[in-house]
Amino acid sequence: MNTTTKILLTISLASFLTSLTGMLWGVFLPVGAIFLGLFMIFNLLGKETALFDAEQRLRISLAEENTPGSRRAGQTHGKASLAAASAH
Fold it and tell me: pLDDT tens track of the chain, all 88 residues?
């Protein structure tokens, strides 16, 4: 877990515990639920974001290798088209 998810989880748990004491439970209970939902979203999408970043870095590196001014443009073109065909 990174810092953002830890903060969201801490706020959620603190809000739920405060709502159990009876003080302003009508305020703290929804706040805890909102922050718990945000924690879950951040936790689930963190893995997807990492995969997307890796895919974009791969695409950028392939694009840089296949530029017309590159010496290896002819050599890597076959690899790039095979990788694109196998991805679909």
Answer: 788 899 999 999 999 999 888 878 888 999 999 999 999 999 988 888 889 999 999 999 998 888 877 555 455 555 555 555 555 5
Question: Which structure tokens are listed for 60?
Answer: 């950028």
User: Phi and psi at residue 62, in whole multiples of 5°?
Assistant: -65, -40
Please tell me the total number of residues recorded for the chain in this structure: 88
- The pTM (predicted TM-score) of the whole model is 0.58
> Distance (Å, rounded) from C-alpha 40 to C-alpha 46?
10
Q: Which residues contact 49 (CB under 8 A, 6 or more apart)?
A: none
